[in-house]
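Issue 218. Parser rejects a valid record. Input:
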Amino acid sequence: MDKIKEFLPFLIPLVIVQFGLLAYTIHHILTHDNYRRGSRGLWLVVAIVGMQFWGSILYFVLAKQEEE
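Output the parser choked on:
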């Protein structure tokens, strides 16, 4: 238990950033209709299941349509 307490100053900001990125990704998926690859449902599943940064990163790299 003492080891976890040592890492809390590092883990708490990391968790906050992770959930912030997930929230932004879900907001972006729900407010946009066009994707380069896949559909809204697919990207929601990828973002939520791959919650540990990877789902959000995959969405922004592979699916996000460039704004015109």
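Fixed in the parser; the record now loads. Residues 2-63 form one domain.
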